[in-house]
Amino acid sequence: MLYLDNAATTLKKPVSVYASLMKNTVFGGGNAGRGSHKQSMAAVRSIIDTQDLIAELFNIQKPQNIVFTQNATYALNTAILGTVRNGGHIIVTSMDHNSVLRPAYLMGNYTVVKADKAGYVNACDIEEAIQDDTCLIVCTHASNVCGTIEPVYEIGRIAKKYGIPFLIDTAQTAGCLEIDAEEMNADMIAFSGHKGLMGPLGTGGLYIKNPELIPPLVTGGTGSASESIIQPDFMPDKFHSGTMNTPAIAALGTGVRYVLKHGVKAIGSYEKELSESFKNNLANMKNVTVYGSDNSVATVAFNVGFLGSEETFEYLHGHAAVRAGYHCAPLAHKTLGTSQRGAVRVSFGIFNTNKDVRKITDLVYKISREAKG
User: Fold this and answer.
1) CB 344 within 8 Å of CB 309
2) What is the DSSP letter of 74?
3) What is the mean pLDDT of residues 6-22?
4) At 373, is the pLDDT very low, low, confident or very high (cuts 50, 70, 90)?
């Protein structure tokens, strides 16, 4: 099966990631912070090592301010709900994922800044949306639907100018675009572990520049300050309640090592070459519409003729693993003009090849010849 759904998860991981997961599951398995014996301390070391690696990748000055969650969704909820717990206005964008939109909707007081037809958010529109009680600005680094890269550096400067916390969703960019917490003026960065960082499923995290301002979503046993019923206020224990998935976190660290070794620029450039080649092929086909901007990560959204995206998916099913529909981002589809039928998403990863591009091109070309335009 041709796998082209890397925006959802990187199915193929470096061999070292599988080896790490096996080693820490079968031969390790100590519970971090639950005892001072060798196995428990080794688990603690694994978590700290992974924090250090992510801090290096994102240029984060305090690795202890990186906390691990089971996914980027949990991280985004922690950041959003924690920031606006006492009320306040939130700014989000029409290109954000439901992991941002649903918590904002839950809190009630929010503004959606609309992107243009290519999915690009104008930073000036963010500034115009600021109100007296705005307490948080949230923006995805790149769209999970069409890959359009947003001006997060510019938005970060605006947030800093007004003294408003800035949260960046890097689920689609960690591992393929450079992320600099300092240059971005990021107060919080949510990341997914199982995509471009090459980690296992069920891994993600949140960097919090000022953790004293955010309460945890979950409280409980941390293995520290056990004599107190009050949740510890030091990092990362404040957000690490319950048994951590240490084998997966260690394997995530191994994935980050792979990214650091090969270089974010090199990985992103290679993936982009594949997606641009595919886009160029689609541009030469009749009855094919491509969405988004040229300034994008290696994700391509398209439709064929008058076919619904799910119909195109059915043609591809059994030959290629892609994603069709609304990708948990309904406002993005409204922005792109695909709210009636969704879109087919093809997303390339580091382990795809030019041969894969040719294969998916041939498959879509066959569909385009048979579809009504």
Assistant:
1) yes
2) H
3) 97
4) low
Rounded to 10 deg, the angle between the 15-22 and 246-262 helix axes is 160
Lowest pLDDT segment from 36-50, 65-79, 91-105, 171-185: 36-50
Give backbone dihedrals phi and psi of 343, rounded to 5 degrees, phi first.
-150, 160
CB-neighbour burial class of residue 228 (10 A; exposed 0-12, middle 13-18, buried 19+)? exposed
Q: Three-state SS for 23?
A: helix
CA distance 188 to 20: 28
Torsional sign, CA 39, 40, 41, 44: positive
- pLDDT value of position 273: 98
How many residues can be counted in the chain?
373
Distance CA 321, CA 309 (A): 14
HSE-CB for 2 with a 13 A CA cutoff:
22
Q: Specify the pairing of strand 2-3 against strand 188-192.
A: unpaired
39, pLDDT greater than 90? no
List pLDDT tens digits, range 80-103.
999 998 899 999 999 999 999 999
Cα(333)–Cα(258) distance, integer angstroms: 34
Cα distances from 326 to residues 97, 231, 278, in angstroms, run 10, 39, 21
CA distances from 107 to 72, 207, 344 (A): 19, 22, 32
Cα 319 to Cα 51, 284, 368, distances in angstroms: 39, 22, 16
Q: How many CA atoms lie within 13 A of 185 on its CB side?
A: 19
List residues bridging with 111 in a β-sheet: 91
